[in-house]
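EI: anyone free to look at a 152-residue chain?
SC: sure, send it
EI:
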Amino acid sequence: MLIYIWAMKIDCKQHVRESKAQLKNNGLKITTARLGLLDILKHAKKPLSIKEITKQLGDGGVDPVTLYRNVESLEKLGLLKKVRLNDRQAYYELAATEHHHHLICKQCGKIADIADCKVSISNKDLLKKTGFAKVTDHSLEFFGICKECSKK
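SC: here you go
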């Protein structure tokens, strides 16, 4: 893991400072494993599975149990968001990003973010019909075929 942190680009120094501040402000110890995890997710173009995160950490990265614990603790603090993308596997992304949804290619798995959300989480009719007191969040995924796969 130490190798990964030292190999980060110079422009990532700001990310490291931000990550350290987030960890400190939430009462977590600043470790290379947590910094590496946050850095990977800050640079990710899509939500990542634990397997994908492990692959990016490379050999000598972090122990899988430690990785799961770190993901779980960062998710509980609201720094990471778990996303389910039409399979049983969990994917993770930074929670600090703007609210968005995903469009997933059913053939190759490519994921695109959809920023324009028209869903209102304070819909009174929804609450009345379901008997819920309040909606705190929502997740919506779309599935289709990307341009590259449609040409095959």
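EI: DSSP finds seven helices and six strands in the chain.
SC: 👍
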